[in-house]
Design a protein that fits this description.
Strand content: under 5%
Largest sheet: none
Oligomer: single chain
Distance between the termini: 69 Å
Radius of gyration: 23 Å
Number of helices: 2
Number of strands: 0
Number of domains: 1
Length: 54
């Protein structure tokens, strides 16, 4: 086997491992449940205090 075939096989294996890891991460994050946004009143007070408006 020449070097280019070995590099292609190794990078293909790394790509497959990264794809599986990504799918597992997405499944784990999805398993946590529905994402509920923060209330608008809390966001307004946060941005106001951050910018020094309040």
């Amino acid at each position: 086997m020449d070097r280019s075939k070995i590099v292609a096989i190794v990078t293909g294996g790394i790509s497959v491992l990264l794809a599986i890891a990504y799918l597992l991460l997405v499944q784990l994050l999805d398993f946590r449940g529905e994402m509920i946004p923060a209330p608008v009143s809390l966001l307004g007070s946060f941005w106001g205090s951050l910018c020094g408006l309040s």
